[in-house]
């Protein structure tokens, strides 16, 4: 924001601009919007920030974010505890839950192995996953990390650790996205779709 | 956010989603991002919200937002106080300041007349503009509202009030945007550009 602007507004816009996907122009627009809100609405927003940060923490079992000791999915007696879907982040849990088809539980790694970004296996929640498997009961682990270099590397790394433990490790299928157009698929996706073709 | 999510996170995402231009999916992503920030960074964000709302208010002269009694532009002795540029919102002041060419002062209306949205002339800062003119010293008022139906109506309404006061009222020029392509200009813009043509 230009230097003629009120300093508290500049500071607020800078705070918004630190959020992912929000540029300085949008941040400025949001700061102006805050000015048009009632004082109680602004307080509610500020409190929501503080409260979420203070009360939300990883679930003691699956590491997904929750305000409880055990998250609602781990605490749900109808979920199949022998099937664990390993994902990068809480966002991915939401994506799977949206399908309304998956009835197993999750394990959130909170990141992917990426030496360039300084993310080593130790900084992920991998040992928590191993200890869940040592407790028995688990029959299958679905590696559901993104189909990216880091996602693949992380899936491979964890699969290698799990195999000696005698647990079945699977990976999400690769192929054409449903509703996608063949012509626009990249060559690797198309190759994978061809390789994993199934009988009709 | 799905019902398996931590309640404080759902509340936070809903707060983000109330901001203009932020949909539920982006709001959820932002809420997760807040979780990855340090507690002191989240507190700084919450404080910036509260502080901006508490300390920023309209300038006693031009009605632009400021944390001071008199904004930095009105307080600047080098600005020409006899020239007032009337704009809809503080954003527009920033737009004009970016040109680094305008040396007059501003008047922020905080809206445009729009009977459909229940915005009447009384809810805008029009009387504050009239009292600035009554104080003398003003030689020209530039109506710089948007070239929309509401912007035009507001400019016309104010111009009618000002003319009997013996002050010169001007309107921003309409024409082709610089760098624009003639072929893509709408017919009204093109007509205005033709009408307001100048000798070379």
Pick out its properties:
two-stranded antiparallel ribbon; homodimer; Helicase, Ruva Protein, domain 3; Dna Topoisomerase Vi A Subunit, Chain: A, domain 2; 200 residues; four-stranded parallel sheet; alpha/beta; 7 helices; 2 domains
Describe the protein:
With 200 residues, the first copy, chain A, is α/β, with parallel strands linked by helices. The first copy, chain A, has 2 domains: 7-55, Helicase, Ruva Protein, domain 3, CATH 1.10.8; 77-171, Dna Topoisomerase Vi A Subunit, Chain: A, domain 2 (3-Layer(aba) Sandwich). Helix content of chain A is 42%, strand content 12%. Chain A contains 7 helices and 6 strands. Chain A has a 4-stranded parallel beta sheet with strand order 4-3-5-6. Chain A is globular. The mean pLDDT of chain A is 90. The interface between A and B is large, with 58 and 58 residues.
